[in-house]
Amino acid sequence: TLLQEGLAKVKDASAPPARSREAAAERIKAAVRQASKGDPAQVLRELLWCLDEGVLLLEGGSRHGQRHMVMAALGRLVERYPPAAAVLRERWAEVRARYLETGDLDGNLSLFAGLSDALGEREAVLALYDQLPEGDSRRRSLASHAYGAMLEARRYQEANATRDWSSMISDLTWFERMRTEPQRRRLLESAAKNIEVLAGAGELDNARKLAGKVLELDGSDQTRTLLQNHLKRAGQAGLLDAIPRR
Question: Distance (Å, rounded) from C-alpha 130 to C-alpha 200?
């Protein structure tokens, strides 16, 4: 919205100096590294600082990625330190209530989705989506965060409505820029999910085109099997038959 854009510009204009940003980034990296092995109480305090203050000191473009790293680290901490789950669950409930009351001001939705993942509540965003009535403006933004849960539930039509074809294709342009095999594999897995959604929603031509693009980038047996498994889930196991092996 215009209000959110205006607030973002104000925040960027008052951004802290580079030294503060660099110090925050280093502190975040250190806290994330300690999530699986450091003193859990201290790590929890550090990660909460990262979430509440540290990521806000970063430049706008890097905040999302760093916040995602912090959330993933909190998820690892929860597995070995039950008090962390209690703290996060209290925040989770508060953020959910704020979102229902005020919408996505101050990033309530992404914070709720991140906390849901950290707590293993991966169906929570979809449950909240289902709770809201048809026509509620919040359903659209919730749907984009519930994409993975919709896919798992095979609610393909709804999942397909959250993403457009052009963005699915443009995502693949990042493949050649990926420096590591794990990064490329994650991108291919994301594309495979999109192909499943397209096929399950009945958009077979687009599913076939996207699969062809993926196999042009990586025609290995591993990638072909990945696509085949997703298409089988969507009930379109034979869709790859028309795409020859390289």
Answer: 20
Q: How far apart are CA 139 and CA 150, in angstroms?
A: 13
State the pTM of this model.
0.76
One digit per residue, the tens of pLDDT, for the chain of length 246 reads 444 444 444 444 444 456 688 999 999 999 999 999 999 999 999 999 999 999 989 887 788 889 999 999 999 999 999 999 999 999 999 999 999 988 877 788 889 999 999 999 989 999 999 999 988 888 888 998 999 999 999 999 999 999 889 999 999 988 888 888 988 999 999 999 999 999 999 999 999 999 999 999 999 999 999 999 999 999 999 999 878 776
Q: From CA 128, how far away is CA 191, in angstroms rounded?
A: 26
| CA-wise closest residue to 124 among 138, 114, 135 | 114
How would you class 166 by CB atoms within 10 Å of its CB: exposed for 0-12, middle for 13-18, buried for 19 or more?
exposed
